[in-house]
Amino acid sequence: MTLEAYLAGWAGDDAGRGDVAKTVLAMCEAGRRIALVVGRGALEGDMAAAIGGNAGGDTQKALDVRTHEMTLEVLKDTPVARVGSEEAEDVVVFDEGRPLAVAMDPLDGSSNIETNVSIGTLFGVLPNIGEDTFLQPGSRQLAAGFIVYGPATALVLTVGAGTQVFMLDHGSNAFLQTHKDVKIPEKTKEFAINASNQRHWNEPMSAYIADCLAGDTGPREKNFNMRWVGSLVADVFRILVRGGVYLYPGDAREGYGQGRLRLVYECNPIAFVCEQAGGAATDGTTRVLDLIPEKLHQRAALIAGSAEEVERIARYYEQPARSSSSSPLFAKRGLFLA
Ligand SMILES: O=P(O)(O)OC[C@H]1O[C@](O)(COP(=O)(O)O)[C@@H](O)[C@@H]1O
Ligand SMILES: [Mg+2]
Ligand SMILES: [Mg+2]
User: Fold this and answer.
1) Which sites bind Mg(2+) 2 (predicted)?
2) Is the four-CA dihedral 184, 136, 263, 296 of positive or negative sign?
3) ipTM
4) Is the CB of 58 under 6 A from ligand 1?
5) Residues 92-142: pLDDT tens digits?
6) Where a domain ends, among 154, 179, 204?
7) Hey, which of 35, 48, 201, 272 would disulfide with 113, CB 3.0 to 4.6 Å?
8) Domain hosting residue 261, numbered range
């Protein structure tokens, strides 16, 4: 089934849904165009060249800016009133009278641009309620998803009716559905975290990872595997397909108290997609979709993926002192057993 047919079936005669469908299709048109550029790699010049800093304080690369502009170009003639982008300090306003808004990370995984590793685009569609549009919790998202520019260009989408996956068919230039109502396996033996930050982690995350690393000799009584692509979109795509948890906790580094990811245009789309696939997403203590953003570029910790594992990690945050394999209290008892 084409993406167009899927969205037409979902929207029916409902004008509001029709606007959401148009907006999603516009994001995917931007994705098609970006996929062409990404697919040419260094033939497009030095896309990883540093050309400034973005609102989050990260180095802005040539492809960050180019994808931001390419996406705005497509969105400007849609039902979208305003766009909140990682690559613009301020909200971009097209036309206040329109019903919708898009929050986006036009290029996710910027550190992977020149390495020929998967990168992507993240987006969430919200009702336009004026100046406070991007301060709405993620639970108000009408649609969300991401496109991965990898070996295949893949779209992961939810309009609140399950999570669907489409792949770009380069022959017909159509996104065709490949996975219907994806379900993230509830249990897992795989986690994704940047382990180079271990010394900076908080106690619950240190304890959880220590228990995983202890493998079949620890309280989990099973061996774990680790993967870290360094592109949120690629790590979460893997989790959707075979389970696992993505972890970017708050840590002790300056500016990383709430982790690295941005709530409005990274964590919220991922949380919506994961929940709709039977998974879960928390910042450790609060469901991500219930967090109330205070500003567009706010950061939030993210623990997302297989439901049972996310719930288990939340218990480490509730009772950190009881949880570590390295703690003298460590024993094969109740709360954290496999
Ligand atoms: O470099 P780190 O600290 O491992 O962080 C990697 C994470 O940061 C991100 O690259 C942040 O996204 P951007 O590339 O859009 O800034 C995620 O895609 C990725 O999971
Ligand atoms: Mg990103
Ligand atoms: Mg980005």
Assistant:
1) 105, 108, 266
2) positive
3) 0.98
4) yes
5) 999 999 999 999 999 999 999 999 999 999 999 999 999 999 999 999 999
6) 179
7) 48
8) 190-336
